[in-house]
Amino acid sequence: MSSFPVYPPCAITENVLDENEVVDAVCIYLEATDHKIIQRCTTNDEGIDIIATLPSGSGRLLVEARGGKSSKPGIPRFGETYRKPEVFDRVAKGFYTAASMSASRLKEDEVALAYPDTPWFREYLLAVKPALELLSIAVYMVREDKKVCTL
User: Fold this and answer.
1) What is the CA radius of gyration of the chain?
2) How many CB atoms lie within 10 A of CB 126?
3) CB-based contact 83:131 (threshold 8 Å)
4) Taking the domains of the chain in order of start, what are their residue ranges?
5) What CA dihedral angle connects 93, 83, 61 and 128, to 10 degrees?
6) Residue 48: alpha-carbon gap to chain centroid
């Protein structure tokens, strides 16, 4: 895995970001750490949310991002913050997607998850952190000020 800066634990915030805001913040962070963004999806697109070249140029970083509130206009709970069971669902589905990407990735590629930095996301992610480490899946936590740190 490449050496991303590791910051002190994020301050847990209450202003929850949606998936598009998480993707935007992670892309800015990656570009600042010498990655080149190849693909960037919104909630209206299908595919890997972020694909970036690694700073070494020897592979790609594949990022599955999830938000903490609905970002699709027209659905019943548009703009509302997810409740705890919905956060569990976002973490579980993100974990599955990242594990699938990890299983089928090229040898030189890396895989990561990205989530808003909230108490519930942290709770569920910390529970699976040993499994994430075994699979070499990094986790980016995005604060309400859009600064990014690792779990």
Assistant:
1) 14
2) 12
3) no
4) 19-150
5) -70
6) 11
Q: For residue 141, give the 3-state DSSP assignment.
A: strand
The CATH topology of domain 19-150 is Trna Endonuclease; Chain: A, domain 1 (3.40.1350)
Q: Which amino acid is at 105?
A: R
Per-residue pLDDT of the chain (151 residues; tens, 9 = 90+): 444 445 555 655 567 899 999 999 999 999 999 999 999 998 888 999 999 999 988 899 999 999 998 877 777 777 788 889 999 999 999 999 999 999 988 889 999 999 999 999 999 999 999 999 999 999 999 998 999 999 8
Q: Which residues pair with 142 in a beta bridge?
A: 116, 148
Number of H helices, E strands in the chain: 3, 6
User: In sequence order, which residues have a C-beta less than 8 Å from that of residue 147 and are 6 or more positions away?
Assistant: 10, 25, 29
In sequence order, what are the residues at sequence separation of 6 or more whose Cβ sits closer than 8 angstroms to the Cβ of residue 52?
27, 30, 35, 36, 37, 38, 60, 61, 63
Tokens 């910390």 correspond to: 126
Q: Are 59 and 97 in contact (CB under 8 A)?
A: no
- Structure tokens given for 77: 């709970």
